[in-house]
Amino acid sequence: MGKRTVLLVLDGTMVAMFVSLLSWRLTGLSLHEAFGLALLAFVLVHAGVHWGWMESRAITALRRTPARTAVS
Q1: Bigger pLDDT: 65 vs 60
Q2: What are the sequence ranges of the domains in the chain?
Q3: Among 51, 50, 53, which residue's Cα sits nearest to residue 7?
Q4: Per-residue pLDDT tens digits for 11-63
């Protein structure tokens, strides 16, 4: 399996967990709590995998100078 496939499976799993977390009556309270903790772990893994991209976007956003407005 390639990196892209693994990321798609991770993202799909996160979406499914999020949707199931919207109704705790669907899963029961104990499974709801376990899904919440697992989703937190998946989000941290997701952020770690994409850290380089997030860092480059933040640097680009901080380097931009505000647009100058014309004074009339």
Answers
A1: 60
A2: 1-10+21-53
A3: 50
A4: 999 999 999 899 888 889 999 999 999 999 999 999 999 999 999 998 988 88
Query: Which residues, 6+ apart, have CB-to-CB distance to 35 below 8 Å?
Result: 17, 20, 21, 27
Amino acid at 51: W
- Answer yes or no: pTM beyond 0.85: no
- DSSP letter string, 30-44: HHHHHHHHHHHHHHH
Structure tokens at 16: 């499914």
DSSP of 2-27, one letter per residue?
Answer: -HHHHHHHHHHHHHHHHHHHT-HHHH
Structure tokens at 67: 């647009």
Q: What pLDDT was estimated at residue 61?
A: 86
Half-sphere exposure of 26 (CA within 13 A, CB side): 9
